[in-house]
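Hello Y.,

Per our agreement to keep a running log of every chain we model this quarter, I'm adding this entry. I've kept the format consistent with earlier entries: sequence first, then predicted structure.
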Amino acid sequence: MILVIAEKPSVSGSLSKVIGATSRKNGYFEGGGYLVSWCLGHLAEYVEPNAYDKKCERWHYEDLPIIPDTWRLAVAEAKKEQFKVLSDLLNRSDLEYIVNACDAGREGESIFRRVYALAGSKAPVKRLWISSMEDVSIRDGFAHLKDSSDYDHLFQAAECRAKADWLVGMNATRVFTTKYYKRLVIGRVQTPTLAMLVERQHKMDNFVRESYYKVSLSGDGLTVTSDPIKEETEANHLVQNCQGKPATVTKLEKTKKTTKSPRLYDLTTLQREANRVFGYTAQDTLNTLQELYEEKLVTYPRTDSQYITEDMAGTVQGLLTDLPKIVPFLSEIAIGDQVSSLVNNAKVTDHHAILPTQEATKTDLSSLSEKQKNIFHLVGQRLAQAVSSDCIYEETAVEVLCEGATFKAKGKVVLEPGYQAIEDAFRTYYNKVKETDEKADIPASLTEGTELRSVQARKSQHFTSPPKA
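Predicted structure for the entry above:
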């Protein structure tokens, strides 16, 4: 028999269907020469300090630091039943080998190896490493199982992080709690993150708003503006000097510029974008992506890459053909085909960028929740943008001289929208207002030396803004 251990029951169910283990048992599936079970996330965790030494049950500053000589793992009470199932399976005498099918990342490696070690199994281990839960990816993964030793360093990295969390959390929490006589929970990640939030909040709370002024001149279809002016009397004086007077265009410079099409999403950039567009937290986005991944609609979420590998180019090319069928606002848009721009083998480590799957193109997506649809649409439209051409526009910079003072304006005309057409379609579909870039309309007839015969001058008041949350 071949034992396959996944991280979650839902993933085990998907794997079982593909490899033929369709008979449901107590805590596992069986069939086709396979046994398929699951870990329920972190089954085994490092024990509390009092498990090493009874004196640690009471918190005393003098007993710190607590540094285990030998690290010990234990299974949480609520998960002991499933661990017993796994332990029995891991020690069966008829096992040919075991497949670690936990999530293909640092945590998945740690989850499996801890259970394997606690169960005392000696059976050889192979690694299933896939970036998609599509049937074709699962079959391909089982056809090309990796040697478990290839991921030894990944496991060591996971354990290093977990031990750092334990050492900082257990010791620093006790240090501050015993010092200040109040339970203060300290964490390796949470405490510096909290410090950043507090520092920013302090700047916001102590921000003192300051006013400043700008003077604008309008004439012959052009509006130009001064640099910020600190004193209101100076701004008033400039308005009085320029009102009804002529002004001369001293500079008119046209520059063709390009905005490159964006790269594909890794997890962080997708979380940032989902927060900006939909207001989702990072955890909301990750949870939703995980749901879509387990439904075989997107590829593996926990990736730090924004590229694909060379061998995926053909698959992505085929995906582009069906993309308008599953992302409604793309149906009237011409999508590019610059797949080669997505390929960079050197910048793909464990997993490639987040993509829709081929399975998604054959699936009725109407049953998805609103949040799932929104995240899926973000992933789909980013693929469409990434393979489209750059946005090319012409920027015009104008300077006008009036009564010895210089006023400026910038204009922008899009020549070739490229990927921006997809972004505009996305915003229209979701009724999202495009952020203004404060570009003025520059009359096409304007040239250097043009005189604006009688300008209208006006003053506007502005205020400095506090740092954003």
